[in-house]
Inverse folding.
């Protein structure tokens, strides 16, 4: 991220401590992860130790320190989806994509992740790909679903 | 001189009310699509677009609008049809391909009865009589026993419309509070109502407000905890998506009562639509003098800031939430001192859940006595629950405290799908417990649920049937908590790890003689010594499943058997040769290719290579695949 862009992120969110998580989320959204260079520059601009930013980056699930895929496949592992077979959906996706939950495919097309409850329990089991939510997902229909992305 | 768009008097409110009423009950025909997250996930956007497109070609001018969640998520996408002078009609499960038919039905004035759910009262003073041959909302089983206070506007107004909010009673209460009530009057009313925190702990709200008000210091804060993290619970999300102004009005009343000038709304990161609608509402309120400086022209100032969570369940705990707002990792701290005394940046802070705030305007306008008439002796008012899992009518409900679990599961929920047998209802999320069939006649209130080994929690109710393994449920919750534990204190960090290890062994058929006793000892340790409620309540699902389903644990440990047929290591998938018709459906779908068999020949599963994914079991229409 260019210095100019970092400035505008800080301007948008504010430079007080309450804005920190918001700033990091903006970087995550724009870059797809938190690059070390960006964190270093943020640390300089906000006058906050880099270790502090790393503490936030490693504590909160929203953040990734490594580049993520173009598409984020998130399997809901909430209780309602779990009793409707959410684990089997995750297992099948792990096999299809060749990565464990949290991993990114080598061609950087997909990042597979889990999420605990997106609040669409009536449609369980649920898979969210980017901003689209798919309900009543079946194991045998997953491969076809992925071809859409 | 006053800017023309500022609302600063009853007259101003009346003008807005008229505008809102015209919007809610226009002189033209209007169709409204449920566009909350559950609606959108079911395809509501496509329906909205198709309706707009189709209606643009009709000769009659029809308004197309959006609204929040009506609670009957199973029936989404839901479309409300309004014709002036007629009862509103709700169409269920409307998909984009059915839109042309629907539009024809609307313009011809001939409703398609098979696709109608019920008629609905829109809260604009219209008649409660229904339409011939169509049930009224309050008469159908899903809605019959419900009573809406917090959710009264969800699904009935456009959440982005300030005018519609005012037309349905909004902001009149704030006006009354700021002009005719003292802060002590407000606290007294909330206290007498008996309202208890709806986030889960059930602490008396009036008392918390009083403590914060009395705490020394001039700078005080209020917080709305919208970090709804219990999997399966989405009440707060629906409230924020469907009626965000109610939360803002409640918070403003609270700020006045407590003496705070600034508020924070901490919203879970995974709720983008709630964040968006809240953003819109905050901007609208500010723009019209209902938030910020000199609210309603009374001289009282209060403003809010929305903070998004970073994806950490533990931040629902109040001291962790405070740490998170302060820009630190969400690690809880010791209490006392409680936030009412020392909260954000060491200042007195009152933290309440979304649903709690949403109840406030109603309590002040209708009065504490009216609120007390609903509910039980110790738990007054209503509670919003999400009923999900193995249940026919999945959705969001609001019922008076004291209704029984049986009524919720069977009368409202419509019972268990597929003719399966009820096993348990889990309440309270990872801090809660499982309630078995024998206790279904328990009235839902704080005390009775706690005595049964569960907790009220934020309101998630997950129904489980004969195909749910209760040992696996305990394992599932501990697995969740292991990821979400902040790691600061040893009892929680180590306790969860060790308990999870044991449960995983049990689920793999490697259970040992003293496992149950060891698990109980770990549970006692965590309950006694963990730093925060995540740790002290983590053993609840485990303890409640041991209490009511000990036989399942013993079957796993002593017989290496999973009675519900869930734990992979303990089940074998076999094809019953008498039922198999050789259709090859399973063989083609098997991801590992371990099912062999020619067309019209009995198929066989290679048990050694079977990975127990269950695809064949789900697909077989003959019921020929059996789990042993």
């Amino acid at each position: 991220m260019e210095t100019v862009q970092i400035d505008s992120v800080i301007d948008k969110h504010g430079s007080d401590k309450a804005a920190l998580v918001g700033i990091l989320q903006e970087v995550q959204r724009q870059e797809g992860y938190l690059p070390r260079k960006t964190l270093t520059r943020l640390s300089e601009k906000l006058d906050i130790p880099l270790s502090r930013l790393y503490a936030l980056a490693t504590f909160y699930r929203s953040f990734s320190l490594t580049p993520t895929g173009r598409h984020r496949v998130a399997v809901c592992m909430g209780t309602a989806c779990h009793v409707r077979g959410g684990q089997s959906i995750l297992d099948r996706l792990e096999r299809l994509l060749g990565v464990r939950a949290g991993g990114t495919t080598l061609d950087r097309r997909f990042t597979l992740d889990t999420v605990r409850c997106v609040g669409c329990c009536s449609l369980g089991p649920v898979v969210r790909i980017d901003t689209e939510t798919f309900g009543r997902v079946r194991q045998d229909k997953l491969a076809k679903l992925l071809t859409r992305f | 001189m006053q800017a023309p768009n500022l609302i600063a008097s009853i007259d101003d409110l009346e003008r807005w009310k008229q505008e809102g009423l015209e919007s809610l009950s226009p002189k033209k025909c209007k169709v409204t699509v449920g566009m909350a997250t559950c609606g959108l996930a079911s395809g509501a956007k496509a329906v909205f677009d198709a309706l707009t497109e189709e209606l643009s070609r009709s000769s009659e001018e029809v308004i197309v609008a959006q609204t929040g969640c009506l609670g009957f998520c199973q029936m989404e996408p839901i479309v409300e049809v309004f014709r002036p002078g007629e009862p509103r009609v709700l169409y269920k499960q409307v998909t984009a391909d059915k839109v042309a038919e629907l539009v024809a039905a609307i313009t011809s004035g001939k409703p398609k009865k098979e696709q109608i759910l019920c008629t609905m009262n829109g809260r604009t003073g219209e008649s409660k009589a229904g339409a011939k041959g169509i049930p009224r909302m309050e008469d159908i089983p899903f809605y019959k026993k419900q009573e809406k206070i917090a959710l009264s506007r969800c699904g009935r107004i456009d959440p982005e419309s300030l005018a519609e909010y005012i037309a349905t009673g909004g902001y009149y209460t704030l006006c009354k509070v700021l002009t005719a009530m003292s802060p002590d009057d407000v606290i007294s009313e909330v206290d007498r109502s008996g309202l208890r925190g709806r986030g889960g702990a059930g602490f008396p709200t009036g008392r918390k407000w009083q403590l914060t008000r009395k705490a020394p210091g001039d700078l005080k804060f209020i917080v709305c905890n919208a970090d709804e993290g219990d999997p399966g619970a989405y009440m707060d999300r629906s409230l924020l998506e469907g009626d965000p102004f109610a939360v803002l009005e409640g918070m403003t009343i609270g700020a006045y009562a407590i003496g705070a000038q600034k508020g924070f709304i901490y919203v879970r990161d995974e709720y983008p639509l709630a964040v968006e609608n809240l953003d819109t509402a905050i901007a609208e309120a500010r723009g019209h003098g209902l938030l910020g400086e000199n609210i309603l022209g009374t001289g009282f100032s209060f403003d809010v800031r929305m903070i998004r969570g970073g994806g950490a369940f533990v931040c629902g705990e109040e001291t962790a939430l405070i740490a998170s707002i302060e820009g630190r990792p969400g690690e809880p701290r010791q209490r006392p001192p409680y936030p009412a005394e020392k909260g954000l940046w060491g200042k007195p802070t009152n933290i309440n859940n979304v649903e709690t705030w949403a109840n406030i305007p109603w309590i002040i306008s209708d009065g504490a006595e009216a609120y007390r008439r609903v509910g039980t002796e110790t738990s007054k008012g209503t509670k919003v629950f999400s009923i999900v899992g193995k249940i026919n009518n999945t959705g969001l409900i609001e019922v008076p405290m004291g209704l029984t679990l049986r009524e919720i599961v069977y009368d409202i929920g419509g019972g268990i799908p597929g003719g399966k047998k009820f096993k348990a209802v889990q309440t309270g999320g990872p801090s809660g417990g499982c309630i078995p069939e024998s206790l279904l006649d328990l009235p839902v209130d704080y005390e009775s649920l706690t005595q049964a080994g569960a907790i009220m929690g934020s309101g998630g109710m997950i129904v489980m049937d004969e195909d749910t393994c209760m040992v696996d449920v305990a394992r599932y919750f501990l697995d969740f908590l292991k990821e979400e534990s902040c790691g600061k204190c040893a009892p929680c960090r180590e306790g969860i790890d060790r308990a999870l290890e044991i449960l995983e062994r049990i689920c793999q058929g490697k259970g040992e003689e003293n496992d149950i006793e060891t698990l109980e000892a770990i549970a006692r340790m965590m309950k006694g010594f963990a730093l925060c409620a995540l740790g002290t309540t983590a053993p609840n699902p485990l303890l409640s499943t041991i209490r009511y389903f000990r036989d399942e644990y013993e079957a796993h440990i002593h017989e290496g058997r999973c009675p519900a047929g869930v734990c992979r290591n303990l089940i074998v998938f076999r094809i019953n040769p008498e039922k198999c018709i050789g259709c090859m459906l399973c063989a083609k779908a098997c991801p590992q290719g371990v099912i062999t068999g020619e067309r019209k020949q009995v198929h066989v599963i290679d048990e050694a290579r079977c990975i127990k994914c269950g695809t064949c079991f789900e697909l077989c229409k003959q019921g020929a695949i059996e789990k042993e």
Q: What stands out?
A: The CA atoms of residues 43 and 50 of chain A lie 5 Å apart. The longest helix of chain A spans residues 20-31. Chain A has two domains: 3-59, 71-146.
